[in-house]
Design goal:
Chain lengths: ~625, ~450
């Protein structure tokens, strides 16, 4: 089965070609079917590889030699191991569900064919990213998903704000990509290779705290902050909600934004040997988690709440990586993919029913009208809030347990963020599904549950959000943490370096108790405020006190404009007017003029007179002889 | 070695076909014969043949590779010639015969193991070309081109022959292995006439490849000769010249690099600048191609200046990239000229609207000439520069890059004309043969550009 691994990315690529070329010709149902079948096919192969794979060593499937320059060899090869298999399952599995969902959600859109072509292309690049056996293939996928993200955020490009959001995402990602690229260059100069299977054993022999390793890992982490929306580069993700909702679910919740975590987990040995970088990652992750959760508290756009929640959850994953809980962080990637895709798709269902209304202040009381959406979203919300036995509880508590052992202060702040998470998520649920309907009569008249193609993925994801956590039940709760054992070959070298979790069961019970208790209190507070008192946020209240800070996203966009964009604009104006116009243009035009003049003169030498030609040749021969024998 | 025999017999057969007025059979038989010759050549790959014919020739991998590329390019030229020769002359068979004879000379040039065979091959090729350049007997420009080519060619051959004689005088042999041994045996104290002979051979070979300051014949001959002959000369003939050049220097004169390298370095730089700068101001597309071919000779000379293990590979890739792009450029030029009657840049205006495929193929060819990534030309330049950098000729590469930038200007002129200038031209009818050749060239250019590995590791 593993020989067929090349088919996994190829199928979506073929889907992209067919739908891309036939977007205006093929009928909509056929386009949706081709696109979905391509990803489902990849999922089937991934699943069979998952079921049969039992090698302790990563399997590298070499397709062809791609670049051979000097001593550097970059093969086009795929690496299959436990880490990439889990990612394959998530990408193709959730990808399939979202393709099916999109066939219903986008059915009225004129750009249907284009949408599925882009979506297939995204899956193709995402698969390259996780399957590549070296950093260069990974980088191709990395750039490719960035491109698709750009195309899909700006899918409705005739709306200027949406197009701007796409550009913002692209530019902020580029900043991170530069870091990633520099990191790869440094890896090439340090290890003389880009292949994982050559770099990691070499790195494992290096001392902890090696300066080069620290620099490499910091550069790679800068790449991750762009793609995975961490401070200071996270502001693009909320704006990215301009794209169609299935895109938000697939790209900006379940897969692409976790690429940074995947990359760090893939390079775990490099990071394990760079404690300084790990500390930086932990602090940045924690700050992002809390800041984003704080902003999410007052947002009124349902997708914006989910976007900030994604940023915040990604922050927790980085916090996990930073404290050395590689399994825990990756566990959270998996469970988060389930419940966040579910929540986005549910939000999409709500928006669909509300005739494209996204402001929760105009919703309310939808639970009767949209029972399936309501129930599945409730499951997703409980999962993200972290109540047992739902998926989020296990992964989040594993991260927090590691944080507790690592540093108590970080743990307190992280726990506070977790309470905020429960508060804003239930606030969203209460505003949307409880109370009275606050929209227009027209919207009320139009309310309906979504078609089966949309509710089916919701139900599947809801089940996964319930049971997904059982793959990592801790020993304290009588489990044996299957995921930890499954991933242990990938993390073997790291586990030798970083200490294992050594909390006793009593402490773990206490930690779980505190977090569950806090979450329940948060939910109750939210219930009292938004259901019992029936509070609906009003614009002027949001613009006062501490809400003002949260509602305006801590003024980060304005801050960036003031300290980065304005000086850059000024600098760019300076370069344009002074350096470019008079300096470079002058130089280039001058060189051009000189060349053209020289050309005019040289051209005259070509007289057409054979006598002259032979004369010139003789001069040339004499010159060569003189130069060869007398000058040298 | 059966390749050489097949091509020689093929030439004679084609001549007799002409005698019996079997015009329709000329092209199929020529092409089939060449395909057979190509197959025979490729079958000798890695056969580790020893020198044959009393050490006269040696059909090694080098010879196989360059023979193959020359034969393939000739096939492409033949495919373009359908209807073309009939239009300009009654003696169609002679065209095919002469090109085949030239090709047989070229096979000798890329596989010689004896200086006398180098000379014989060169002359078989040159004499055929003198006639081919002037084959439009009633056309003044064609006659002028032939005469100029002949006079200057004869003049330069004299130098080559004199050089060979002097080398023989010093080493007492024409055999490449003996000459190489002569050089190795005498780390000091090589006879001075050997050096003089070496310089004179450089002069003669530089003439054949059209390097400055011995390039004056190129623009006039290229412009005056029938377009298809120009295509043949600027691709197959030039590649053969470089193969002969490289073969001689890598086998015999490598230990003397300190002596000849500075001279060749100056010639290389001069060639680059003369070719590129003069091409800038041309308004005639064909003449621009002539000057651009001079500059490409400059880039290929790079690999000889930086003679080393990577040189053969570098020249081979560069030659392959250059050949397919040239064929494309000349093919489109022939079509445009057939319609508008002239060959200036303005004649390409609006081609993108009337013939999108032609415009696209020509654009890719121009990008490849300019060395833009994802085309074969980029890979060619990359390998040539890489070979030079391996020998620490950093500033030489810097000069070459400046020249590559100059090149972009005139190559893009035609792209600008095709895509951004309007002209109410009607669609040009493209024969199927042309579409085939353009398609093959396009695919080779892109495949080599995207996935070069399958020919970069040949040697």
């Amino acid at each position: 089965m593993i020989d067929l691994v090349w088919l996994i990315p190829l199928l979506p690529f073929i889907g992209f070609l067919i739908n891309g070329l036939g977007r205006n010709v093929l009928p909509k149902p056929l386009i949706g079917t081709i696109a979905s079948l391509a990803v489902i096919g990849s999922f089937a192969i991934s699943l069979s590889i998952f079921l049969t794979f039992d090698a302790a060593q990563p399997q590298v499937i070499h397709l062809f030699d791609w670049i051979n320059v000097g001593s550097l060899s970059i093969p086009f090869a795929f690496q299959i191991d436990q880490l990439s298999i889990m990612m394959l399952l998530i990408i193709t599995g959730i990808g399939s569900l979202i393709h099916i969902y999109s066939a219903g959600y986008m059915s009225h859109d004129t750009g249907f064919g284009k949408f599925f072509a882009y979506l297939n292309l995204f899956v193709f690049f995402m698969l390259l990213l996780v399957m590549g056996s070296n950093y260069v293939i990974m980088f191709i996928g990395w750039e490719g998903v960035g491109l698709c993200s750009y195309l899909l955020i700006g899918f409705w490009y005739s709306n200027g704000a949406y197009a701007d959001a796409a550009k913002k995402a692209f530019i902020m990602n580029r900043i991170g990509d530069l870091g990633f690229l520099l990191g790869v260059f440094l890896i090439i100069s340090t290890f003389g290779s880009v292949s994982f299977t050559e770099i990691f054993p070499k790195a494992a022999g290096m001392v902890s705290g090696d300066a080069t390793l620290i620099l490499i890992t910091i550069l790679l982490f800068i790449g991750a902050t762009g793609k995975s929306a961490q401070l200071p580069l996270f502001t693009w993700l909320p704006d990215a909600m301009a794209g169609p909702t299935p895109v938000s679910a697939l790209i900006h919740a379940a897969t692409m934004v976790t690429a940074g975590i995947y990359m760090i987990a893939r390079s775990n040995i490099l990071f394990a040997l760079s404690p300084v970088t790990l500390d930086i990652i932990a602090v940045i992750g924690l700050l992002t988690a809390v800041v984003a959760a704080f902003i999410a508290l007052t947002q009124t756009d349902i997708k914006k709440v989910l976007a900030y929640s994604t940023v915040s959850q990604l922050g927790y994953m980085f916090l996990g990586l930073g404290v050395g809980a590689f399994t825990g962080a990756f566990f959270h990637v998996l469970t988060h993919a389930f419940f966040k895709a579910l929540l986005f798709l549910g939000a999409g269902s709500v928006i669909h029913a509300m005739s494209n209304e996204q402001d929760m202040r105009n919703m309310g009381g939808l639970r009767k009208k949209l029972p399936i959406t309501f129930l599945t979203m409730l499951i997703g919300t409980i999962a993200i809030a972290g109540l047992p036995p739902f998926a989020g509880f296990f992964s989040k508590d594993e991260i927090l347990a590691h944080v507790y052992e690592h540093n108590k202060l970080l743990w307190i702040i992280g726990l506070f963020g977790a309470f905020l998470t429960a508060a804003y998520m239930f606030r969203m649920m209460f505003l949307t599904f409880w109370g009275n309907f606050r929209g227009t009569e027209d919207q009320k008249h139009h309310l309906h549950e979504s078609p089966v193609s949309m509710t089916f993925p919701l139900i599947v994801l809801a089940i996964l959000s319930i049971v997904g956590g059982f793959m990592g039940v801790p020993h304290a709760l009588g489990g044996h943490h299957w995921l930890n054992e499954y991933l242990s070959p990938v993390l073997a070298a790291t586990n030798n370096i970083l200490p294992a979790l050594s909390l006793d069961h009593a402490t773990e019970y206490m930690l779980m108790g505190i977090s569950v208790g806090g979450v329940i209190i948060s939910i109750i507070i939210a219930y009292v405020k938004y259901v019992s008192k029936g509070y609906v946020p009003k614009e002027e209240e949001l613009q006062s006190g501490i809400s003002k800070l949260s509602y305006n996203k801590l003024y980060l966009d304005e801050l960036y404009t003031a300290i980065i964009q304005k000086p850059l604009d000024a600098l760019s104006a300076f370069f344009f007017k002074v350096v470019d116009k008079s300096g470079i243009d002058g130089l280039v035009n001058g060189l051009g003029k000189v060349s053209i003049e020289a050309s005019k003169t040289l051209r005259l030498l070509q007289t057409g007179n054979v006598g002259f030609y032979i004369f010139a040749m003789v001069i040339g021969i004499v010159a060569v002889l003189v130069y060869s024998f007398i000058i040298i | 070695m059966s390749t050489l025999i097949v091509i020689s017999i093929l030439a004679i057969v084609v001549l007799y076909l002409g005698l019996f007025k079997a015009k329709q059979a000329l092209l199929p038989i020529s092409v089939l014969g060449l395909v057979a010759a190509l197959a025979l050549a490729i079958m000798e790959w890695n056969s580790n043949a020893a020198p044959i014919f009393s050490g006269m020739m040696h059909f090694d991998n080098f010879a196989v590779a360059f023979s193959s590329i020359c034969i393939i390019t000739t096939i492409l030229v033949f495919l373009l010639s359908k209807n073309y020769f009939e239009k300009i002359s009654d003696n169609v068979a002679e065209y095919y015969t002469l090109i085949l004879f030239a090709l047989s000379g070229i096979i000798v040039m890329v596989s010689y193991h004896n200086l006398s065979m180098l000379f014989v091959g060169l002359e078989i090729m040159s004499v055929s070309l003198y006639i081919l350049a002037g084959i439009k007997r009633k056309d003044f420009a064609s006659n002028e081109a032939a005469l100029k080519y002949f006079l200057m060619g004869a003049f330069s051959t004299g130098f080559l022959l004199f050089g060979i004689a002097l080398i023989y005088g010093a080493s007492k042999s024409f055999d490449l292995a003996v000459i190489a041994q002569y050089v190795i045996d005498r780390p000091t104290g090589i006879d001075p006439i050997f050096y003089v002979g070496l310089v004179l051979m450089i002069v003669g070979l530089c003439f054949k490849v059209g390097a400055a300051p011995f390039h004056f014949w190129t623009p006039d001959v290229y412009e005056g000769a029938p377009t298809l002959i120009t295509a043949f000369m600027s691709t197959v003939v030039k590649i053969a010249g470089f193969a002969a050049f490289l073969r001689l220097f890598s086998i015999c004169f490598a230990p003397l690099q300190d002596f000849w390298m500075p001279t060749l370095l100056v010639i290389t730089i001069l060639t680059l600048f003369v070719g590129n700068i003069t091409a800038l101001y041309q308004t005639n597309f064909k003449r621009m191609l002539a000057f651009s071919s001079i500059s490409h000779a400059g880039y290929m000379l790079f690999a000889i200046v930086a003679l080393g293990a990577a040189s053969t590979n570098a020249i081979f890739i560069y030659a392959a990239a250059y050949a397919v792009s040239s064929i494309t450029a000349f093919a489109v030029l022939m079509l445009v000229k057939a319609k508008t009657g002239s060959e200036n840049f303005e004649d390409f205006n609006g081609l993108a609207k009337s013939n999108p495929f032609l415009a696209f193929a020509l654009t890719v060819a121009m990008l490849s000439f300019a060395g833009i990534p994802l085309t074969a030309g980029f890979i060619g330049k990359f390998f040539v520069f890489n070979a030079a950098l391996a020998q620490y000729h950093t500033w030489l590469v810097a000069i070459a890059v400046v020249n590559a930038i100059i090149g972009v200007f005139y190559y893009f002129k035609v792209i600008v004309a095709m895509y951004f200038k309007d002209n109410q031209t009607k669609q040009i009818a493209t024969p199927a043969y042309f579409n085939f050749v353009l398609g093959v060239s396009l695919i080779i250019t892109l495949v080599l550009g995207i996935y070069p590995s399958f020919i970069t590791n040949l040697f």
